[in-house]
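Hi all, long-time lurker, first post. I run a small reading group and we've been trying to get comfortable going from sequence to structure in the token notation. Rather than ask abstract questions, I figured I'd post a concrete chain and ask someone more experienced to write out its structure so we can walk through it together at our next meeting. Sequence below, copied exactly:
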Amino acid sequence: MSSIEKGLTIIDRLSTPPYELSLSELSVDLRIGKSGLCKILAELEQKGFVSRHSLSRKYSLGTVFLRMGTLYKSRSGLEDIVEPILGMITEITQESSYFGMKDGYESFLAFKKEGIYNFPYTRTIGKKITINAASTGKVITAFRTDEEIQYLLKTRDLKQWTPNTIIDPVRLFEEYREIRDQGWALNNEEYHLGFMGISVPVFYKKNEIFGCLTVVGAKERFTEEKIRYWCQLMNNGAESVSEEISMRL
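-- Answer (accepted) --
Happy to help. Here is the structure in token form:
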């Protein structure tokens, strides 16, 4: 592995929980010797890609990523496109709504709008999304190519979040096919017991998966009638977002 690959691997690891790791923890996690790792971390720290806490001496992502994220949102206009749609969805459903984005072989939460109901689980902006439980991750994965899906099923840890979580790769592949056929994904207590989520895809230039719109809330409020109506509502929003990003990006 080259120094560049190691540096990118370090950055990727620090972008996932617990978001702060010591030199020893990174060395064990990434299977990189401390001596070489220390040199790469020093270079990354100098450039602002990582920072080190003065007391704990643990490493975390640096402020350069905040600057890059702000610059991307400003130049792409994505926030101006997505925020009004999320506001409309949350106002009508009264549930929390989210916009998830594809990022290479990963997907993450990019924007959110809180509903009127208390949601006890933290949804951190920038957090990577599981491919087998959250409706956001499932719908983005479902609209990838079959080759990409097979790669993800072979390389990702299919964690059992609840008794409803699908961890069998064959069953999950069938689930993705069903999602693709029906045009939306459902999370039926697969990530957190007592909660459901529905997601619809957002495409770039009509054929490439870009992200998705999601509504999450207590299962008791997700009636069949509401799910049908909310899917249509989000599909209309997804079409608007798709048209805007296809013109601007």
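A couple of things your group might point at:
Residues 224-248 form the longest helix (25 residues).
The mean pLDDT is 92.
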